[in-house]
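Page 42, continued from yesterday. The earlier attempt failed because a stray header line got pasted into the input along with the sequence. Redoing it now with the clean sequence only.
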Amino acid sequence: WSFSVLMTGFARDGDLAGAAWLFRDMAEAGVQPCSIIYNGMLNACRVAKDVAAAEQTFQKLKADGLKPTVIAFSSLALTYANSGLYSNVELLAEEMEKDSIPMNAHFLFALMMSYSKAKPK
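This time it went through. Structure tokens are written below.
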């Protein structure tokens, strides 16, 4: 419980160093991160506008045997959208469809925003 509270704070502030510290601290304590922790880390990446860290976090979530939720997909999509990477958001939408994960309003917003911030225009 306290890990998720800390991660929420790091995410809100876009504090990737703090979020990474929490991941290490959890590992040292023998605690496996749950989807809430991963979603928080993805949100920290989004706020910090760090696409590479978001991609690594998303891949680690899957490597740890967790199924990404629409929340995780939406957080990664928003990170891509902020950088105008619309094709990456479209690929996520395809992956969600393949995995029978319905698109929600947050993901749709990310998709629309990715088109508006697309580079080049």
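Notes: The radius of gyration is 14 Å.
Reminder to self: strip header lines before submitting.
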